[in-house]
Design brief:
Chain A: InterPro entries: Cholesterol_7-desaturase (IPR050584), KshA-like_C (IPR045605), Rieske_2Fe-2S (IPR017941), Rieske_2Fe-2S_sf (IPR036922). The complex is a heterodimer of chains A (385) and B (94). Chain A has 385 residues and is of the alpha+beta class. Chain A contains seven helices and 18 strands. Chain B is 29% helix and 14% strand. The chains are: A alpha+beta (385), B alpha+beta (94).
Chain lengths: 385, 94
């Protein structure tokens, strides 16, 4: 469609091409690794396929296409036998490398007895798989950074949630650059917002205030929340690590928040959140655990707010932006690198781009709105203002 | 799914060349207002940047992030003040 057609009668048209036919190249987290380590096969619907995840006798976590190449039996309904997964249909045994190792009733394994296997990584309590439509291994340097707190005693364990979302996963990516939705959808109050895209990493730096109009006042004796500082980076197409500090009266609480997903198919994805909280003297040991659970529930609520938008919205390839919006087009240009062959990654997809937003006007408008909300609440005798 | 151009670059000021006064790195920058800044680096500019080369990774999982070059930031402000980098007239704080 030409620009002239788009602007016929001055009416802006929403344009949306087909969703991509392939799934992003990169590391994807399938969840906490512990839950896959019970010696049973697990079914995971991902990358338009059904996968089987199992721990073999040697302790390794393996991910294969779940459908047995023999007669199509579902390996994820089978049994782990030694280092192999045995098909429930005819007991064909498949190794973590994707090769059929044994057919107990056959003299020999046929040629071509090889199925799709995904490279796995068990790191900081999470299971990752490398997805590449071209079938290449992860290049050096394309890694998921270590999260020190995840293995330290002075941090809590992961509080993890997952939810199935009926939308293409580009919707969740757009949040990286979408400052204003944090105010309107998540009831937070950004005051500083900057993005940096470089290589396979997309970062969002955000500072914010708490919203007195959106939450009940702090209970007697409990410190009130003042705001937060967040440095959140997608390391590849699906795994965001948020180095997040909540500022309270008289103390800071340091957290690491994971916001990650894997595509189920072109029109749905599993959205996951994980949080760990650093223990400190003010918080106490049990206090940190309680805080992690509370924050985990809070983040989950945030996801529900997003989902409510996504399930009703239109897909838009040509969003209409004001100058107080973030770099949506440049983010999508960065995101495109994961959907083309490695040889076709263009310089502009990976070259460093910075965008610092002017928050003057949004902050002014939002202060006014918060004050109006508080005044309305006081007038209604809410008793909390 | 090819990336489309940001229409704001057509309707408002375009990305314009700016050179860092400290190291000479050539980038393209844009200011939609005095407080807003976009910077498009090239691989060559990243290699040239002195602050970038001198930077050391910080703590934490996102510690590899190089948040900004201060010398470049100042160079962009100077270019805007000198009128080399256009800043829209109506982009005050009002």
């Amino acid at each position: 469609m030409t620009a002239a057609e788009t602007e016929r009668d001055g009416v802006r048209t929403i344009e949306a091409g087909a969703v991509p036919a392939r799934f992003a190249r990169g590391w994807h987290c399938l969840g906490l690794s512990e839950r896959f380590k019970d010696g049973r096969p697990h079914t995971v619907d991902a990358f338009g396929a059904k996968l089987v995840v199992f721990r073999s006798g040697d302790g390794r976590l393996n991910v294969l296409d779940a459908y047995c190449r023999h007669m199509g039996g579902d390996l994820s309904r089978g049994t782990v036998k030694g280092d192999e997964i045995a098909c429930p249909f005819h007991d064909w045994r498949w190794g973590g490398d994707g090769r059929c190792k044994k057919i107990p009733y056959a003299r020999r394994v046929p040629l071509r007895a090889r199925t799709s296997a995904w490279t796995t990584m068990d790191q900081d309590g999470m299971l990752f798989v490398w997805n590449d439509p071209e079938g290449n291994p992860p290049p050096p340097g394309v890694t998921i950074p270590r999260i020190e707190g995840a293995t330290r005693d002075d941090w809590t364990d992961w509080v993890w949630h997952e939810t199935l979302v009926a939308a293409n996963c580009r919707e969740v990516m757009d949040n990286v650059v979408d400052m204003a939705h944090f105010f309107y959808v998540h009831y937070s109050f950004p005051t500083y917002f900057k993005n940096v895209f470089e290589g396979h990493v997309a970062t969002q730096i955000m500072k914010g205030l708490s919203r007195p109009d959106a939450r009940p006042p702090a209970k007697e004796g409990r410190p009130g929340m003042l705001g937060n500082t967040s440095v959140a980076a997608y390391h590849g197409p699906s795994f965001m690590i948020d180095d997040l500090t909540y500022h309270y009266e008289g103390m800071d609480i340091d957290c690491v928040l994971i916001n990650c997903h894997y595509p189920v198919d072109a029109d749905s994805f599993v959205l996951q959140s994980g949080i760990i909280v650093q223990r400190n003297e003010r918080l106490g040991s049990a206090g940190a655990d309680e805080m992690a659970v509370r924050l985990g529930a809070f983040i989950l609520k945030g996801f529900e707010q997003d989902v409510e938008i996504w399930k009703n919205k239109a897909r838009v390839d040509n969003p209409l932006l004001c100058e107080e919006d973030g770099p949506v087009y440049q983010l999508r240009r960065w995101y495109e690198q994961f959907y083309v062959d490695a040889a076709d990654v263009a310089p502009e997809m990976v070259e460093r781009f910075e965008f610092e937003l002017d928050t003057t006007r949004p902050v002014g408008a939002w202060k006014k709105e918060v004050e109006e909300n508080l005044a309305r609440r006081a007038a209604a005798g809410g008793g909390t203002a | 799914m090819t990336a489309r151009p940001d229409e704001r670059l057509l309707d408002g000021p375009p990305m314009s060349p700016v050179r860092c006064r400290a190291c000479g790195a050539a980038v393209r920058a844009r200011k939609a207002s005095w407080q807003q800044t976009s910077i498009q680096w090239s691989a060559e500019a990243v290699e040239t940047c002195l602050e970038r080369r001198a930077s050391v990774p910080g703590d934490g999982p996102n510690g590899d992030l190089f948040p900004a070059c201060e010398a470049l930031r100042e160079s962009i402000v100077r270019a805007a003040l000198d009128g080399e980098l256009p800043v829209p007239d109506d982009a005050g704080d009002g």
